[in-house]
């Protein structure tokens, strides 16, 4: 049975997507059980769960810190700086519907979890 979720943020680079989702069928006071950030490799279809550390907002700019890197973005674009030193520009995408391959990877992640 497919999981039910809402896409909160979608950021697109040429090689990968970053997405934050909120699970709709989970009743918990622990945000780590409800909210998830993922990095999706478009070529391999590998989905990596990003380990959330902290978030901040400075005016229109959002910031997220993960064990794997740091994301800064506004309503149109941003930058993801990976821990290995690689930095990529990202574009804010529509959260209305995810690309099918990304949705399939998210569904597989939770079925296998």
Reported for the largest beta sheet, the result is: 9 strands, antiparallel
Tell me roughly what share of residues is in helical segments.
10-25%
Shape: globular
Name the beta content range: over 45%
Strand order of the largest sheet: 4-3-2-1-9-8-7-6-5
Query: In terms of structural class, how would the helical and strand content be classed?
Result: mainly beta
Distance between the termini: 14 Å
Whole-number mean pLDDT: 94
- The total tally of domains equals 1
Radius of gyration: 14 Å
Please explain how this structure is put together.
It comes from Hymenobacter latericoloratus. This is Cytosolic carboxypeptidase N-terminal domain-containing protein. With 113 residues, the protein is mostly beta strands. It has one helix and nine strands; from the N terminus they run βββββββββα. A hairpin with a 3-residue loop joins β7 (69-73) and β8. The longest helix is centred in the C-terminal third of the chain and has 13 residues, at 100-112. The two termini are 14 Å apart. The model has no long low-confidence stretch (mean pLDDT 94).
Attribute tags:
mainly beta; 113 residues; 1 helix; 9-stranded antiparallel sheet; Cytosolic carboxypeptidase N-terminal domain-containing protein; globular
Summarize the structure.
It is built from one helix and nine strands. The chain is mainly beta and 113 residues long.
SSE layout and pairing:
Blueprint: E1 5-12, E2 16-23, E3 35-41, E4 47-50, E5 52-58, E6 61-66, E7 69-73, E8 77-82, E9 87-92, H1 100-112
Antiparallel strand pairs: 1-2, 1-9, 2-3, 3-4, 5-6, 6-7, 7-8, 8-9
């Amino acid at each position: 049975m497919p999981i039910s979720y809402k896409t909160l943020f979608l950021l697109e680079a040429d090689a990968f997507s970053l997405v934050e989702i909120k699970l709709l069928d989970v009743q918990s006071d622990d945000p780590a059980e409800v909210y998830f950030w993922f990095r999706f490799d478009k070529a391999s279809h590998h989905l990596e769960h990003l380990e959330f550390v902290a978030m901040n907002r400075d005016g229109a700019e959002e910031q997220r810190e993960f064990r794997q890197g740091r994301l800064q973005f506004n309503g149109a674009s941003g930058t993801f700086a990976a821990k290995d030193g690689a930095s990529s520009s990202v574009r804010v995408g529509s959260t209305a519907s995810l690309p099918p391959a990304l949705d399939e990877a998210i569904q597989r992640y939770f079925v296998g979890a």
